[in-house]
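Supplementary Text 2. Reproducibility record for the structural model of the 213-residue chain.

All settings were left at their defaults, and a single model was retained for analysis rather than an ensemble. We include the record here because the model underlies the residue-level annotations in Supplementary Table 4.
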Amino acid sequence: MFLKTISSLALTGMLMAAPLAFAKDKPKAMIAPSLFSFEVMHDGEMVEIKRNQNPDNVITELYSTTFRGMPQAMHPFEPYDVETVAEREFVQYMIAAQSTKNIMIVDTRTIGWHQRLTIPGAVSYPYTMMDDADDRDWAMDDFGAVKQSDGSYDFTKAKTLAMFCNGYWCGQTPSMVRAMLEHGYPAEKIKYYRGGMQAWTSLGMSVVGEAVE
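Retained model, structure tokens:
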């Protein structure tokens, strides 16, 4: 009887201790299966992309309110076949952009937003650049499109662009993409990260900018 009691107490102790051991060894918040972090170049410095591991971390005040505009459609560019991507697909473009110049991560928001907070590795090309012919030509040239003598663009060497703005409700990326499509930019070369900064920060993903705490 005494031995049975000891065994029962020992088993109970093991069961009570198990959750504590599991909590201590619990895997970190991952970005994707087996992917905890990766590095990208931003303004000449390497930045580690990872999720905030603090269970008490909360979303930045820039994106904490819910009173926002109307959500964008999942595929707002029809009949153009522009792919809408989520975080895991977007991350793959971020990683690929580190080893090839044919992929760019493009922040389409106005410069003030970009300076306050952005995704590491992103380059600022405000959507308003499409409204001015010279600015548009400048952006298109950086995107690999060559201006022709007749005013059209040669997209033979057009880069793949993973583009984002403030979030599901933000119209800055859709506005820029529509303008680019109208000028002939290949739809298959544009990737629309619909969640943008709202989704990125809600996952505790690494950011850079003036508003970083």
